[in-house]
Amino acid sequence: MRLLLALSGFLLCAYAGWKKAKSLQLRTDLLYAMADDITRLLMDMDYSMLPLCELIARIQPCKAPAFWKTLLENIESNTKVADAWKNTLYLLKKTDKGFSMLSDEELTMIVDFGMALGTSDIVSQRKNAEMATNRLLAHAAEISAVLKAKGKAYGSLGVLSGLALAIVIL
Amino acid sequence: MWWKSDLKMYFPQGLWDILRQVEDGDHLTEIRIRVNKPLQLVFGVHERLLDYVADENTCAFLLEIMCDHSVYAHEDELKNCFLTLPKGYRVGLCGKAYCENGNMKRLSAVTGFNVRIARECRGAADDAMRHILSRDGRVASTLVISAPGAGKTTLLRDAARQLASGELGLKVCIADERSEIAGSRLGIPCLDVGQRTDVMDSCPKCVAMSLMLRTMSPDVVITDEIGSYRDAQAIMDAAASGVSVIASAHAGSLAEARKRDIIVKLIDEAYFEAVLLLERSGEVITTKRVL
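ok -> structure tokens follow
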């Protein structure tokens, strides 16, 4: 019985350490993906001047498909783009693994971009997208650096504390 | 009513709830929305003020919806204070303009909308076709003139449909600068302009006419509201290439039309073989050949 308990404790701690490292990885990937998709959206906007819904439906290659698909559904139900954008983010924060890892600061960065999406001329759209991608990329780089420095440490810490717990239990 | 199904998605819910209750909408010609003013419906010569007042937020949202949430895609139209919705509904805009060096850059706040109800009226060009088609079956270059709201665009659309369909089967090109003739969305005509008709949408008409002459080998070119020297030059180029042109211009009479230099030149130098005047009297529109 004790052996089983010790094993469970070890696995739980190891998982917690791994999850912490993994959440950093997921956040970084998602921020890079959003920055890439926003850049792609702007490129298509600049080239084709198609309506926003058409552009969103056509983003290829798309790195955060869950986000754009949900956004498209929300826009089509006769809401403001800014509201649809915000609702999509908060909905995915509850339901999507990647978005649920984002901090409030990161969510705000993405929300800010959506506030002005589609509401102004192409020059302003470009500036808005440039600002958003710069912020996202800078933040993603910071998390990436943390991941590099502490990613393995979180994993090791989990395993070590798991071992300690197991020894105490035994 | 056709306009209810066409326009439903372009009005915020509160405003639409009022509009959808309009029962005598068959004769509706304009819906006018102004910030802090009652909603105005125009029925040809009559009007009605409704008990609905739009605020700034409603107007901002209305603009967003009418632009398909994509103001950037309508910059040129907004600079010229109009928008065209699918199926040819033209929306005139007013508000706070931002200018630079005396030129209009954009409308920074839109506070007035005039939604003109589009009508696809088959047979509107029946009378005009007697003048447009000569006895040997050739299409005469024709200028259609009338005061605003008498049905020039409707006539041009139906003329295109008749020329490009059936036995005539001509290759018709439409230079549709304001998307009103063909009511295009994403370049695809939403109104019936005939089976053999090509449309150059949202392009300055002089540029469109010149491009289509070179690339689409048309028999007939149709365009709306000519007014500049460049338009006149494009029409002269078409005539020199043996292509017939059917165009329209704002004027209440031939005398008024002749107050513009380019119209005088085009008529006097016989670039137009026929001039038709449309006159509206209540609901009845008559076509009269004045040259």
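Residues 75 and 84 of chain A are 6 Å apart (CA to CA).
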